[in-house]
Amino acid sequence: MSAGDVAGVELSPEFQSALEELNRLFAAALHHAMFNSCHSAWVEIERTRIANKKVGIINDKFEQWRDGSAGVIRAWLPRFVDLASAYPEAVGDPIRWSEDSVWKVVEGGYEIQRPQEDEPLPIAWSVNRVMVYWFAVASEFAPQVNVSPLRPWSAPRWLARSHRETNALLEKHVSYLWLRINREIKDAIGLAKIRRSIERGSVKSKMSRMPPFRWEDIDLNLVNLKLTNLSLEMGSWMREEEARIHFEDRGNLNSGRAPSLVLDMKLKCADEWARRMYEIYSDVWQIQGGTKSAAFVRSVCAQAIVPFFQTRTGAIANQFSSFAASANFPSTVRDATLTTLQMNMQRLEDSWRRHLEVEARECEHVEQRMQAEQEPQLGRVANKKTAARVTNQAARQTPEDEGGQVRSLRDRRTNGRKPGRRPRRNRSFVICAGTQWRRASSDNRTRVTHDQLRNIAVALDAAGYTPPGKYLEGRSAKELKEFNSRNSNSKAGPIKTWVQLISINDKDHVRGMRRLLYRCAKVDGRPMSGN
């Protein structure tokens, strides 16, 4: 919805002037982030003659461009919301108008299209002039690349060896930029909605009666169903991307280039995967009527996001190790690549920790402000209730009650039967594991296959049910504990995720996992085959 879409409303000159100036400043900030990154890349590339260092500079400066663009969006989108809130009669819904206005400037400045609602993740990306300009300036300082007469641009030999590789390089980075900008706009719009709800007072009444957040309150069954669909979607996308990389690199004599590109693609995919996981948890919690709080954000980070990165690191490392063994990679190259992968995944995990901690602290400030506004009124009511309660208790109090013995005996009789032993596994894990096992058993009437067991392991890791030793039963848990003790300092390391347990393919560990899943599926009285 653009300004002026509200029927019968004439835009004021002040609003039009402010909107034009805001669009100009926002577009200039985006251009500044783009040009600064590519120009600084060329300054550093000009000083070196080593191809690998040049490629590293390109990657670092492209990340600088993405981070700078994200920072510009975070800084300027709230100003669109403020302007729209000052003239609601001209724009209608301020949040939607702000999102439309920001995307309009981004589309004009970066030539990337806004995604449609419920649009799947694109597989093919089109190269635009802005990306060509950035790489032309960053790699060989050719700002005239888009000046008429236009000619196809080919990257320098140290960056891409053919026109086809140039197009693949540009398409890949268009996708990386699109994913980051789309995520930042969604996050900024989400924060704007929260601020607007606070200003309207809709959050105040809900927070006053909202109980403290507990991880068990989330409908993990619904979350796991959504995470399974996400896992299948991202797995299909990665397989298609990996096949495309190997196909385009089939004539390359450098056998290490394709695996490096595949690892880079999986690293970017992990970032997008984590973002969509966080959106799933947030959406389910909102559907349940909950409000995002600092405890919610930190719980999702600790229970879902961090275990996800640990799981993905192990899965990608295992896949690469299998590929390196089949391709006869030198052990030094394999170990160096695995070390680099672990470092990159750790940096990505740390980045997500910081991002969610910032959001959690913002939620804390909101909660503190709401509590400060409610304390005077609640304090007066509490004082009246406390005075009345003390008066009534003093009138009814007996000597036995002062000692506490009569009250304790009365409470024991009121409680009824003696509580039983607390279950070792929580109910949410049993539901999740049992649902996954029943679904796999219904697909295959005889036995759950190893691939289906791996999919169940991915779902359990994504839901945060780690380490496996916490959930395995009796002898299986003891054997896993002994295995981890023996391998705590070895190269393989201890088993901390379900995917690692499946990848090692120890028959005793796998049998224990099958037994556990089968028992979880029988809890509700519906025994399944497949054990």
Summary of the model, kept short:
Helix content is 73%, strand content 0%. It has 531 residues and is mainly α.
Molecular structure report:
α2 packs parallel to α6 (about 165-200), α8 crosses α15 and α14 runs antiparallel to α15. The protein folds into 3 domains: about 1-115 and about 120-145 and about 160-195, no CATH class; about 215-225 and about 275-390, no CATH class; about 425-520, no CATH class. The longest helix has about 70 residues, at about 330-395. The chain is mainly alpha-helical and about 525 residues long. It contains 18 helices and no strands. The two termini are about 55 Å apart.
- What is the overall number of helices? 18
Strand content: under 5%
The termini sit apart by 56 Å
User: Radius of gyration in whole Å, from Cα?
Assistant: 29 Å
In which range does the helix fraction lie?
Answer: over 70%
Largest sheet: none
Unreliable sequence segments? 377-388, 393-417, 525-531
Overall form: flat
Q: What's the β-strand tally? A: 0
Structural domain tally: 3
Q: Which structural category do the helix and sheet elements fall into?
A: mainly alpha
| Helix and strand sequence | HHHHHHHHHHHHHHHHHH
- On the 0 to 100 scale, the average pLDDT is 80
